[in-house]
Amino acid sequence: MELINQHTKKIMEGCKERAKDQGLSFNEETLEYIVTNRDLIELSPKVMIPTLYDYWVHDVEVLKEKGKYELYPGNPYETVINTQPAISFYNDNNPDWLNVMIFYHVIGHIDFFQNNIFFKHTWDYDFTARALSDKRLIARLRSEKGRFLDYVIEFARSIDNIVGYHNELSLLNTPHKTRKEKRTDYYFDVFLQSEKKVSISQYIKEIEKYNDLKSRFRDAAEESFFAEIEKKHPEFEPLFNKYLDKKTDRKSDLLQYLSDHSPFINKEENSWIKPVLEVVRTTSIFFQPQIRTKIMNEGWASYWHEALFLADDRIKGHEVDYSRINAGVTAMPRVGLNPYALGMRMFHYLEEIGNKGKYTYDFQKIKDANERKTYDAKQGQGREFIFNIRENYCDFTFINTFLDQDFMTKNDLFVVGKRLNNERMVYEYYIKSKKAEDYRQMLIDLLYHPPFIEIDEAQSKNGALYLNHRFEGKPLVTEYIANTMMGIEYLLGAPVQLETSEVTMTQAGQTAPFLLPGVPVPPPPQPDEAQARTISWQRVLYTMDKKKLTKKKL
User: Domain segments of the chain: what residues?
Assistant: First the structure.
């Protein structure tokens, strides 16, 4: 692995200039490396961070990808890392014209990383440097603790999908308020309404009084107003301080809670576990936005490699080669999902909407299909529109907001069903639906959505930990419950309980067997065709105590 040569670096810098001329925004400093196909295969399974801490699962993934490469040799085009500066890796046998196309794709990724608000927590530090420090820490602890370190990593990684990513993000996106501003908010929003429960007329009088002081004394009005409040309500200041303490309490995710409150971890001889949990947690939080913006990120990069490369004179003589490669990357499959293809087409569609003024209430009122198709208010705001979307959306909000029936019709999309042909004894695919709501739901079901499991401190008694799965229509994977809860019990040093929902009915009038995870389910009797399939849910409580799992209905 080596840095790209000066000739290739000059090409990259030229691509950056053209990209910035079109409105893309990113840091000038970047690092580019030339690697072999095999190197790219090894980088990808380690989540694109070559300095990531050593763990046996990473090595297994590398071996698996090498095996795939031996059977089906391919040409990985690039890998780009969201670091400061951004690092990208390129195949050593790429010709210059292909590098131009790939550079534009990478620049699209970098622009997305550095401007999308779901990556905001990654902007202020170099994760590669932190990962290297973490790797050294893990290596040192492994030499001291042996297999116990890998137990801790494995137990921590079993719950690192439920880290408090949105909690961390909300802290960065919440406007900072001074104590004075918070005091004013508390007085009018909480103290008068919840504590004193004053009448509406009294509340309006207080607002008018405050506004009158602000208009006459400006900055001095605050002190004068609250000096009088403290004389009238001596309990105000203590209640306000209590409110501040309560408001600044951060809601801990499970890894944080274990690190802070576990009697086992907080023993002096086990204090080394805390930094290990923090390494696993921060690594997971760093990569959360990448999996939550896959369609947008790849679609944005594909949109720009097409828009910029088609306008680049270096495409001359390579139009057919480009078309073949681009079609392989951005072709829309009839069955399955290609995030590159879907994301790119949605950005093209949204640019058209912005240019024609179709994202307005006037257009939404139009019901006639021909009128909708020919509508054009000539607003010319397409690029501005998609840049705003790039900044403020993730895959879920992107799909849920913008994937409509017009997009479905324009791209001839549909939901595919699968059924058994009893006559030929083969499975066949068929068009199940062409409705936008069905296609949208299919995509949403495919998106990353970890379970919402919160700590119920009120029910965590006698040192035990009570976890509540806030059910959202998808049950937990039961085969993982036993091992995951055993790991939590080990890290906590006390019993663990998990409340969740499970299916209780499989056929009308037929109760599902009530079994522990790992116990084989007996085959159900063949249902009568007239018998309707129904599903109902039952809250159950799992308890892991001394490595023994029990379950009961609630």
Answer: 2-116+293-326, 129-164+253-288, 179-247, 334-446, 453-519+528-553
